[in-house]
Amino acid sequence: MVDLSFGDTLFGFWNWVDAIIRILIIVIAMTVMVIYLTYGERKVVARFQQRLGPTRTGPAGLLQGIADAVKLVGKEDIRPHNADRWVFEFAPFATFIPVLMTLVILPFAKDWGVRNMTLGLFYVFAILGLNIVGIMMAGLGSGNKFALLGGIRAAAQMISYEIPLVLSLLSVAMITGTLNLNIIAEQQDRYPYIILQPLAFLIFFTAMLSELHRAPFDIPVAESEIVGGYFVEYSGIRWSMFQLSEYAAMWAFTVFGSIVFFGGWQFPKGGDWGWGWQLALTMGKSLTFIIAIMWVRTTVPRLRIDQLMSFCWKILLPLSLVQIIANAFIIVYGGEYWLLSLTSGIGAIALVAIIINRAFRRSTKTTGLVGAYRSLQVPAP
Amino acid sequence: MTVWPEQRSLVADVEFDTVDMTINIGPQHPATHGVFRMVLTIDGELVVDCEPYIGYLHRGLEKLSENADYRQAMGWWDRTDYLAGMACEFTYCQAVEKLAGIDVPERAEYIRVMMTELSRINSHFLFLGAFGADVGSFGTSFIYAWRERERIYDLFEEVAGDRMFPTYFRIGGVTMDLPENFESRVRWLLGSIEQGLEDLDGLLTGNEIFVERCRGLNPMTTERAIALGITGPCLRATGLPWDLRKAEPYGIYDRMKFDIPTGREGDVFDRYFVRLSEMYQSVKIVEQCLSEMPKSGLILNPNLPKTLRIESGETYVRHEGTKGEYGIYAMARGGVKPYRMKLRSPSFCNLSALRELVVGNYVADAIIILGSLDIVLGEVDK
Fold it and tell me: A115, A104 in Cβ contact below 8 A?
């Protein structure tokens, strides 16, 4: 039997008891985290929109998430008459379980996670793809056309963006030479991998927004078009399972991203200050990520589905393939690390330039009006 | 579709039968701006057919007005274009004044124009906010717009005593004189409006995704727009500088200096942009009113009869409402009540073009196109 533990077990229990204790800790931490992420999102978004956000429940509204959770649990669980019963009822769990399974392998501090898997990175790709199944189940089983549209949109989008996501992580894996997340974090004691692979990070961040259905890729849940998409028919505890899995996925993804690209628990210049600091560092990095996601959400509108697809297949995918080829050449021919940094940096600049150039060309091609209303031609009446 | 035997291929044989899906958007849908319902027939993500249903907000406005005194009916007309109540009151008052031959004091005329333009700004702010939300900017544009709208409503409350439905105008003038600090208050408000406009301009027009979604979507020629009966900003977006404030000046608009912003392509972006630019012109008009307005004087014609009785006559008054040509046809046959009141509502006429505009676009774009027409259901359903 393969030993997946980190060596020492908690309180000296047997290995399997130790695993259960660790999973319980993670589940509790995730619940608390999700409750305060919803609170935090409301606060952050409110500040961006010149509002206050929740203030009335507890000091500074801190108990708002708990109040909401209690309210949601108390709500009636409604199942539409024409819904496919079992598909409808199991869909929230099918969405949630892959997210929970992802949390199992993330090292939150040095040698501290639930399980220590050699193929950690691969495991994350494999498991996160399963998320689509639950969403499709919800979309097809609800017996609602908005939900159906949302489910189909989600499937199309998530399958497309899975590819650049995986390829961007693969280019990091080529450098690390291992798929164990704990070792990947440990290797970044001199500099984080974002310095070596900025392009991979940009692609990862974009694809992550898409996988999480956050703006500008919130097409499957588009509020103004299909009124919430696949979870439109859910209520009460099942609806909150969808929310739980959404926020937990956001947390898992950001912790994962901070481990791969920012060194996770590793200090920027190396050094070991104990597990408390390491945990704080992981959480700090992932929360910075989360705030960036919320920032994007409050600022940008939503893409159309064809624009989304063309961005994925015509821009992100070729760039990530080019990066993998460049990495392969450099690594096989024993190039220096600064070459990796250089090629990826050029790619990142190209990606940003493509986006800016599109914006620039579009705005100047027809009228030259963007952001400059004063230049508007006013014919004499 | 008939498939001729020689065109039959292997591919056609194994192809699945696809059926179009009908989805019902509204009347309770966040993007329909009220209680509008459209039934979209979609093929995947493309709209093949669109059938609008209206009438959920029908209150029998025209009939109610026939059963009320000329002065009592004012409150109903507020509630047609409820985002710019004062503009509707203005048209109604002018229609009745034209029928009865009543003059309006100069100061009242200035107050009327000022209030109408502030209402226009208010209505267009709601458009900018809601349009941003339609395109998908998670309420940020909405809140930005709401900040300024609240300030305008606060001013209305101070002037007229009510925010949305002020019933401030009277036949022959306005109800109350302006409050003491009015001028400084409005000047501050105009500064705040310009700030809000710049914020929204930066948030929406400066955003690549927003422009990419709107630019080139659903362009329309001037001829087609006229044939469809489209008026207002949607018509001006096609490049025709047709604004009733300039074309047939009413009130004191002939004294005002302002430009008519027009677009070029008539696409969704131009419709948005014409409204945005128009708000700056409205700010200019209010500023001119403030500096030219007589500082004191009558606000209501003193020679009004105790009961307004109008001998037979008929008239049609049309104004540049916030959504387009807002016209009232009034007919009197003696007595204290009108014989017939008819509203030519711009939203209704613009909305009638919806099917032609929407078919062939994506579902997501159908929502934006509906938003870009800027309908208000109180006016559509009367």
Answer: yes
